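Hi team, as promised in this morning's meeting, here are the two structures we talked about. I've kept the exact order from the run log so nobody has to guess. The first one is mostly here for context; it's the second one we should focus on when we meet again. Sequence first, then the predicted structure tokens.
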Amino acid sequence: MRTFTAVAAAALLALPLVPLSSASSAAAVLPPMGWSSRTLGCAVTEAAVLKAADALAPLAPLGYRYVIIDDCWLAPQRSAGALVPDPARFPGGIAALADGLHAKGLKLGLALSAGTKACAGGGPGSYKSEAADAARIKEWGVDHVTYAWCNVPTADFPGQNVQQIAQTLYPRMREALGDGVVFAMNNEDGSTVPWLWGKDAKATTWRTNVYNRPIPDAYPNMVDIWETNQLRAEYAGGGSYADPDLIQAGRGGMTETEYRAQFTLWAMGAAPLVLQADPAAAPPAIVADPEVIAVDQDELGAHGRLVKSDGWYHVLAKPLAGGDRAVALFNESDRAATISWSLGSGRHRVEELWTGAVATTTGALSAQVPAHAALLYRVSARNDPAPPLVTFEADPAKVLGEDRPTTLEPGRTGEILTRVTNTGATARLRDVEVTASGPQGWRIAARTPVRTGRLDGGDTFTVTWAVTPPEGTGAGTYELAFEAAGQRATAVVAVATAPGPGRTYLSDLAWTRAANYFGPVERDTSNGERAAGDGRPLTIEGVRFAKGLGAHAPADIEFYTGGRCTSVSFQAGIDDEVGVAGSAGFEVWADGGRVAYSGLLTGAMPARAVTADVTGARHIRLVATNGGDNATSDHADFADAVITCE
């Protein structure tokens, strides 16, 4: 098994550089890789770009060659009709900058606008100056142009829609630049629908990120952008690629697992791999894995397609040059899940590219994929000697779609399972033993045998474990690790305490998770929409309530009840602070089913009593749904919210 570490990355990056002579070399036909100055904004300077280039240069042998200045490099006015760089930000000029980058084995990219002004920084746009600006760009030795849709005078094109105008303006610049310059069409709101015609316009890339602009460094937004990008898959490939925006690894807003998932999904989509973080901060274990990069840079240029999707669980497949396939298993959900796919008849060699683990299978590909993670396999028909593919599951979900971790209580023993399956069925597994470890002080004891002498093809070996968190364990999530058949599986379990017997105000309890439209859910006050503690007294149609939860619909608040509670009750209503505006529906969910609903309530209605039977439920949720209009004023109060337990 190969573990790709920063040390290994450093060794790979020590390869010699090949200087680039000029922008007149043949146009790139593969998705561009490099770094963008977007995070610097208009604080970008020549010195900052050169510093980033020095950090990027060790990555050049892997393909990261383009240093792209996103905007704010132009002087406010042209000189004798020609573009000039801002003398304060780029005192050495663009030509010298390009020469310096070429000497480092890098290339230079600049942003231009198809309109009358640049998108940022106040410089001129290229509207009606396409030929002159393209000549200037090539004279400087620029290798990449991001052509953005900003300040376009649509009034100059009466009777034409935005797409028609774009189909006039973008080809002008593409033709003027010629094939020696990478041409990245950038229309962030998607109004020009570039995927429909970008290939015909000879665009190297065309932006598909229409959900948020630019891409935020957050997992939910990244997934939404990926899903939008997948809708354009049929239009991509053959030297013209879908661009879902920049690689976020190293910025700090996502976990390592989530950054690896983004890189995997982008590689499967043959997307540009352009870093937004300072190259020095981009983790080599993610951005410098040559096997994963090879999937993105495969000469076929195919955009991976979804071949299976069960809501949160996705399988993508992509043909590779030479007859291999890339297959990605992506678990979008908040809990580890087993994802499977049939590779077809015959014997297959499968290598998980992030770890280097190699196995063989007679057709089934199956793995437990951690929450928010993606596994990436190269599949070939080679008959290499390798062990059979093993599917190792720790605490598998009991039902499809279960997204919360198993919850344990301090001092109480719970039960989880592990399963080892000889999925590959190419040989018998012998002497399989499962071992377990957990946080200090936790007791993990097997209730069933932990060893089996043989595991034939398709057979499964299950072990039941008794797990006890120590008394005093704080609420939160914890990891239990298991090893078997040369593999490691991790179970993420939650620790929470159920309410005590009698009646308890929900605002006095810790929730296990909460989602709210504006700001955090508030305890015993209304929702102030911003920081915690900024609410007002809970008030519905003039009646004040000392206790309750203040939310802003849509909202979802979950509590652990451990199967020992019987009922939930509250007064539902729209808080007076929004006047007669606002509307919401109030629900109670017990485990997987809705057990109470208030009906639609508006700001002009008094509070309505809601009572729900939650007998036997391990988790309950209070949900406020949007009333069918906008969510601006939907201050939803769960006043006097009480739970009764045994």
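And here is the second protein, the one for discussion:
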Amino acid sequence: MTSGIHHITLISRRVQANVDFYLGFLGLHLVKRTGGFEDPNQLHLFYGDASGSPGSLVTFLVWEDGSPGRVGHGQPSEIAFAIPPESIGFWLTRALQFSIGIAGPAQEFGEPVLRLKDPDGVIVKLVGTNALPEPAPWASRDIPETDSIRRLRGATVLTEKPRETAQFLQSHFGYREIAATDTIRRLASTSGDVIDVRDATGFWTAAPGTGTIDHIAFRAPDEATVLAVRADLEQDHAGATTAHDRKYFFSLYVREPGGSLYELATDGPGFAVDEPPDALGTTLFLPQRIGNDAAETLVRLPQFALPGEPRLTRRDLPFVHRFYHPEAMNGRTFVLLHGSGGNETDMLPFGHQLDPQATLLGVRGRSTEEGFPRWFRRLTMTTFDQQDIRSEADAFVAFLEGAREGYGLDLGKTVFIGYSNGANLLAAVMLLHPGVILNAVLMRAMAALEAPPESDLSETNVLMLTGRDDPYGKHAPALKHTLAEAGTKLTALVIDTHHGIGSDDMEAIRRWFAENGL
């Protein structure tokens, strides 16, 4: 059978930093961008050579602002790219130019190796070798073809069962042992790439998350071979396997005895099935199964710019946040605050449906309850930590000041839209910091702030939407009274719905926009 690495998949926390490193610094080719096969709300990027050849591919699941993982046994720990041996000096100089820390060259199994880390902390090795074929070298705008990365040289796997892990690779994936040290067994494929099986006995176990390698995929010529390997694995009682049609390849997943996840993927049909070969990676594709949810999915996916393209520089601000910029913008901006248990992407589809040409800024609350984000701590279902409300309101105002300076956010023209717990925070911010928020939509809000200060909100437009069948609706009148007493230009409506939000909210907000010239 064909052997060797098909691709390696990692998990990244920041898409723009990832693109800048793998395309901008390493000079790889973006050959495909999709919504995740398992989770369409997760961006999946594929980098490789000019034609996206098996063996050149490194792919990333983007968990934007996701939690970091932990490298340990039961997981791959390093990836390696092949470069011409005479290009070591070029890459040392390039790392200095890009202010990227690099170590080496050092000799590993007779090959010169440079070590560096990507923005998520994954160890990336550049290995000087002529041991691999070069199917389609890719020359980027500032890396000559003679110095460009050829393909994947290999990967390192950490395991507490080195003998069993090595035997698994040899029995089912076409590898053979060619060298060894006290702690590493080097296995090679017929394609020329290598897997270093490293004894990590006594090391801690791996934990999934950003900055880790999710799995290594090996090559198979066709689906029949994949299914034959599956039969062999089942006959050997090698553990559970799952098979999937990934559109660009058919694949099988299995865990080896040491715990690392492996995939067996077919060489075809390849990435040109839905894009011309000379336009690979230019279009974002979503899994067909999402159907009518395509627009909702697109707005949730993090956006990025290719090297050399204009981009929005991300600012380090007190709250995790996500911008969405439509292709055609009309100058309107919505700041969107989720309800209990949501995150910075939850309200983006609502904002986009409300106005497809509006710029959207989704923000994530910093408080947590049983692991889920909130805007402030809850003591009971209807009472709240007053000090936490005030401190988080202060922090949110600092966030807005940073967004105003860093992103050019015009607070006077911005509409703040909050749902449930997010609406409660907006109400608190308005009362504690008059004049910061001038246009607010509060959906399913209640009076969370006790003993609010006297505030002059005469310049503030507020739309408050209460659900007729909302069990929390009985707590809304107290907030209406407080906002009216503060002098807001208040429109308070009871709509025929429950605690959730939907089309009735959309219609009411659009009418309010028209009536107030927003």
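Starting points for discussion:
The CA atoms of residues 334 and 415 lie 5 Å apart.
Residues 386-407 form the longest helix (22 residues).
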